[in-house]
Design a protein that fits this description.
Blueprint: H1 19-23, H2 30-36, H3 39-65, H4 87-97, H5 101-106, H6 112-145, H7 154-176, H8 188-212, H9 216-223, H10 228-253, H11 284-287, H12 289-314, H13 320-345, H14 350-375
Helix pairs in contact: 3-6, 3-8, 3-14, 6-7, 7-8, 8-10, 8-14, 10-12, 10-14, 12-13, 13-14
Length: 386
């Protein structure tokens, strides 16, 4: 039998993309196992988790803005799911709160009714966290039991659950820092770790969902057309944006957003004179509102500048979907800068501050999407249609 001649432009390893090749694959091969995987169902489950984590971030922000985070003074992962059901139970919880310095110094005139308001915010935040864990566990165990998880994905999905459990522990570690004598709030650096891990989990969920949106052979083929330089630049954007998110948490942790409400100056100065008033010197980087807000503003300018450079490179991409992804990233970047300025000018009013936080989520995901399309360009016709 005469062997069919190959075109000099045909790649030898293009066979996996062919339906016939996939059908003929051995039963235990990676290709066959990948075809059996419920990629669409797992992707839908991941997007549900994504939406729930976003809700967690929003509720967590509101809990912080309403000074509700220390209203529950114990960590009870199981029994804590049941709120006080009687007047006696409410009075017991209120008595525990009255023992900490936040009550003694800032809320000594608080009534039981007012305590209930802040208690429900913190309880709701913790309950939502429990629900996220439950949704992850039910989904993961179901897909595992039905053997629907694609090859190589069990560890990735298990990692999400592990990080979720770690996030719960870090949440209590954060709260515990505000319960010690002499403190009326949580440590800002612990708040930054807590929020940073939330964004890391969010980023992993989004990245996994992007990957599951395409077949394994399609991803292998797309990777050959990756733009290495653009991928590297977007990776830099991702890292810088993550640093800015951590700094935003530091600002929120010490209410620095309400300390200087003018822009572009700070209290009429380019560099606030009180930036190094705290001793020892290193504490200023964590506890001085002037210095923390100045650093947050400075990194915002750096992120904007680098974002413009990355966008100018990305918009020249020969892949239409990739270029459009960088356009959207740039639009959200400018929008987030405007929201940040508005948050400062209006002294971090809760509705503006929460919108700014949601803007961070949107920008974070759009950076990741642009980065993904740099690594795995979407298929497009000769005319440039994706």
């Amino acid at each position: 039998m005469t062997q069919k001649k190959r075109s000099i432009f045909e790649e030898v390893d293009a066979a996996p993309a062919a339906p016939a090749a996939r059908a003929a694959a051995p039963k235990g091969s990676l290709i066959a196992r990948d075809d059996r995987g419920a990629r669409r169902a797992i992707r839908a489950w991941l997007w549900l988790l994504f939406a729930m984590v976003v809700a967690m971030i929003v509720v967590g922000g509101l809990t912080r803005l309403t000074d509700s985070g220390l209203s529950i003074t114990e960590w009870a992962p199981v029994t804590g799911a049941v709120p006080p059901m009687s007047l006696e139970a409410w009075e017991t919880e209120f008595a525990k709160y009255q023992q900490i310095d936040e009550f003694k110094v800032e809320n000594s005139d608080m009534t039981l009714t007012e305590f209930k308001a802040i208690y429900w915010w913190e309880w709701g935040h913790r309950q939502l966290g429990r629900t996220v864990g439950l949704v992850w566990a039910v989904g993961f165990l179901s897909f595992l039991a039905m053997k629907k998880i694609p090859a190589g994905w069990t560890g990735r999905l298990l990692l999400l659950g592990g990080l979720g459990g770690l996030q719960g522990a870090i949440g209590w570690w954060m709260v515990a820092s505000g319960l010690v004598e002499g403190r009326t709030d949580v440590a800002s650096y612990r708040l930054a770790v807590h929020l940073g891990l939330a964004f890391a989990i969010l980023g992993l969920i989004a990245w996994y969902a992007f990957l599951l949106g395409r077949s394994a052979p399609s991803l292998m083929t797309a990777r050959r057309g990756r733009d290495a330089r653009l991928f590297s630049m977007s990776t830099g954007m991702m890292h810088l944006a993550f640093v800015q998110i951590l700094l935003g948490a530091m600002v929120a942790g010490i209410d620095a957003g309400r300390s200087f409400t003018d822009w572009p100056l700070m209290a009429g100065q380019v560099f606030p004179m009180s930036a190094f008033d705290i001793d020892p010197f290193w504490r200023n980087f964590f506890e001085n509102p002037a210095l923390v807000q100045f650093i947050h503003r400075t990194v915002a300018y750096l992120l904007l500048a680098f974002g413009i450079v990355t966008w100018l490179k990305g918009r020249k991409s020969g892949n239409r979907a990739t270029a459009r992804a960088y356009d959207w990233m740039a639009v959200m970047l400018f929008g987030q800068v405007v929201l940040g300025i508005g948050t400062v000018l209006y002294a971090a009013q809760w509705h503006i501050a929460i919108t700014h936080q949601l803007g961070a989520v949107a920008l974070w995901v759009l950076i990741l999407r642009a980065r993904f399309l740099s690594q795995y360009p979407a298929d497009q016709s000769v005319r440039g249609r994706a």
